[in-house]
């Protein structure tokens, strides 16, 4: 078995334009994520799907039992691919992800999905801190505008700031074309 795993984070229906919490560029990011997933399947790398569910029913999206919480068909799991449900931005927190990766002998993780500034950043940092060689495919990730201290930060700036921070010390940050041509 390969020593690499692709971790597909939160590419769920609520992030699409018809969902409850749409992200800028989600369709393009998901199309790129699908290319990364296809490359992984062709290379016999493990593909792990992580899906977020809020345990608080007052949260505005990712509510259990709704269509919005389901993984989008563009990146749908196939066969016996692992699906991990999480309740926090960090895909490792209170899940079996780390144990699963260790048991499978995974040394490198490749991360795609959403949101760049939350779950991608948290998961990539944790993966690196746990000693996994970490790759983030930046154009296979999406986010949205955020607000801070009365100012709106455009999604493109949020994404760029987070990818540059990850590239500085936590991950190899690459484009889809570069990744799939390796």
From TrEMBL:
Q: Which Gene3D superfamilies match?
A: Isochorismatase-like
Gene Ontology MF terms in the entry: hydrolase activity
UniProt xrefs under Pfam families: Isochorismatase
- Domain Isochorismatase-like positions: 5-148
The protein's superkingdom reads Bacteria
Protein name as it appears in the record = Isochorismatase-like domain-containing protein
Q: What InterPro entries does UniProt report for this protein, alphabetically?
A: Isochorismatase-like_dom, Isochorismatase-like_hydrls, Isochorismatase-like_sf
Cross-referenced CDD domains: nicotinamidase_related (cd01014)
Q: Which UniProt keywords apply?
A: Hydrolase
